[in-house]
Amino acid sequence: MSRKPFIAGNWKMNMTAKTGAELIEKLKPLVKDADCDVALCVPAILIPEMVKAAEGSNIAIGAENVHWAPSGAYTGEISAEMLKEYGVKYVIVGHSERRQYFGETDESVNMRAQAALKAGLTPIICVGEMLEERETGKTNKVLTRQLTVGLGGIDDITKCVIAYEPVWAIGTGKTATDEQAEETIAFIRKKIGELFCPMCAEKVIIQYGGSMNAGNCKGLMAQPNIDGGLIGGASLKTDFATIVNYNK
């Protein structure tokens, strides 16, 4: 089954309104003929300016997190409706840094994903194992737990994007081999088939999020189960366009 590739950038806590808009202006002509969907997930405070900068281009703007409640006494949080009002299309939930530094759990990831879906946003749901978990052979066990709980109660999994992030390969310069990434993402697709249905699993976009860059994107994207990338550091420069145009 044909799945349209999807390359998304995750700016994390980087860029300003000025530098972000400048980068988008440089990227627009470089990615305009891309054969994949393209998005940049940016800090919440930058969303209005980045939506404006990307206007008229094929670059969608996403958010890096969302709260599960539509409103309420949640100081510092942002709701899905707030994001939607500013033209956001995608939102990252359950990124490993949110899990590691801010106490995200599989349960809270699920609640955030459900809130995004209810508002008509596409959640990019992140899963992945720590180095110790991989080295002790627990990768599939960890992913099974994250997927079972994180996707619980979701009616239509095809409205979600899954990003596999081997935590040991994020910001470390390390990356899984093409074969390692393919093997694990194939397992994720199989597990989604068991949790939902095999046909659903074949439709779901699954990205690789472990330090994909201009040098390794072609090999990773050549794998049958890898449908794109969730790009960190490389999305902060024009190298992002090389990844987007991996097949050219």
| Number of helical segments with 4 or more residues | 11
Major β-sheet annotation: 8 strands, parallel
Q: Would you count the extended β strands for me?
A: 8
CATH topology: TIM Barrel
Average pLDDT confidence is 95
CATH superfamily: Aldolase class I
Taking the alpha carbons of the first and last residues, their distance comes to: 22 Å
Computed Rg:
17 Å
- Helix share, percent: 40-55%
Our count of domains comes out at 1
Structural class: alpha/beta
Shape: globular
Classified by CATH, the class is Alpha Beta
**CATH architecture tag:** Alpha-Beta Barrel
Return residue spans where pLDDT drops below 50 for at least 5 consecutive residues: none
Placed side by side, the strands forming the largest sheet appear as: 7-6-5-4-3-2-1-8
In terms of DSSP E residues, the strand content is 15-25%
**In sequence order, what are the helices and strands, one letter per element?**
EHEHEHEHHEHHEHHEHEH
